Predict the 3D structure of the following.
Amino acid sequence: MRICGSFLFWAKKKHGAAARRELERESNNVELQNRMTVNLAEPVTEEMPTDRFIAWTLERFSDQRMVITTSFGMEGCALIDMCASHGKPITVVYLDTGFFFQQTLELKDRMAERYPHLRFVNRGTSLTPQQQAEKYGDELWKTNSDLCCKLRKVDPMYEVMAETDVWITGLRRSQSVARANLQMIEWEWRYQALKISPLAKWERPEIVEYIKKHSVPYNVLHEQGYPTVGCTHCTRPVPGSTLGDYSRAGRWSDSEKTECGLHGGEGI
């Protein structure tokens, strides 16, 4: 059964808000059951709707060690919402570098509160900024940004992947040249894990549309000219940037570096 909007309107008028909420809950339960009905024999193609592909992934690899990784960019927040809608207790891993913007930390708390059935786990480095400075010198992100990323992102990621069979990411092909050949499903040789990218074919305006439609929290810095948000020392606003724009221009803007190394590129 599917409850149409006009019936919900009638229920609200006839029986009040309580009846409407009950009908909405019933409708949501039916829709959730429909999403979770998965044909594992269905071939995965570029034409498969993203929601069905996510349902297929969660069911197909339900007996594997599966994680979503995110740095709480807009794509990551949309992906978390899509996965959370299927009701499964997935682990969401993030790598707090010790240099997160305060707005990113606040967003993380909002996401954890919004999706209580998901497990948000910080697997960032135990190397404190002070320890890093003592060993490698002050402002390593300026003198050797690749090493800084390796210490604070790439090395911790290897530890995460050593315990992971299936890795779900919010990457998109059009984000950068290094991601242009991204596949929805591929084997990540470096981490020895299956890499799943449900948003591979999406564009940034579509992400914004989804975020707005489903009232998904996102980093307020995106409204202040930051198309992407990384560490405080290496992320700058891009003049004229709007929510629908995506650019790596604000990352490591004093160099040609565009990737931290987690997903390949020149950052490792």
